[in-house]
Amino acid sequence: MYISHLVNLTTRSWALPLLAALHEGVPGRQAPLLKATGAGRTAFAQSLQHLIETGLLERNPGHGHPLRPEFRLTEQGVTAAALAAQVQGATAAQDRDLLRKAWTLPVLTQLHKPRQFTEIKQGLMTISDRALSQSLRGMEERRWITRTVEPLARPPRPVYTAVHTGAALAKITSTALRAA
To answer: InterPro entries, per this entry (predicted)?
Structure first.
């Protein structure tokens, strides 16, 4: 999996929980998936459609009613679902809302080692300064990353480091990207 795939995957808030639920054996029908993820119907439908469009999910031919279809993971989806399950498993239930934000995982992937703001931005070419700063701030509030200022650098530059849950997620995602 490439960083662009990870960015695309996380653009819909319920894509990762959906993939993780399917990986854990939840039946591929709407009602069980809604119950397992806790998503609202509209956001769920958008995430489901997004996963189909990205080729990670498909309708299971010959199964389900036309108005209540059954879905299954594609070959690429199996790999993505395994990653999603690892990510969900490494995160406490109360912190999973942060995972539903689009840039959390891609930013953490860049933080497999301490980096400055500009280095993170260069690794994620499509992210805006505002989105990156909001993402970093949100993760800092949850203590997934720490921000330290290099005192000898002129001008002083903050360095971001993944810690605790953030470090575990950074390791999972960077390992998955290197394996691709």
So the answer is: HTH_HxlR, WH-like_DNA-bd_sf, WH_DNA-bd_sf
3-class DSSP assignment, residue 71: strand
* Domains of the chain (ranges, CATH numbers): 1-89 (1.10.10.10), 93-180 (1.10.10.10)
Helix residue spans in 54-155 (DSSP H): 75-89, 96-99, 104-110, 117-123, 129-141
Chain segment 34-62, per-residue pLDDT in tens: 999 999 999 999 999 999 999 999 998 87
Q: Burial code of 89-127, b = ≥16 C-beta within 10 A, e = fewer?
A: ebbeeebbebbbbbbbbbbbbbbbeebebeebbeebeeb
Contact call for residues 169 and 95 (beta carbons, < 8 A)? no
CA atoms within 13 A on the CB side of 34: 12
Q: pTM of the full predicted structure? A: 0.87
Q: pLDDT tens, 95-118?
A: 889 998 989 999 999 999 999 999
Give the number of C-alpha atoms closer than 13 A to the C-alpha of residue 91, restricted to the C-beta side: 28
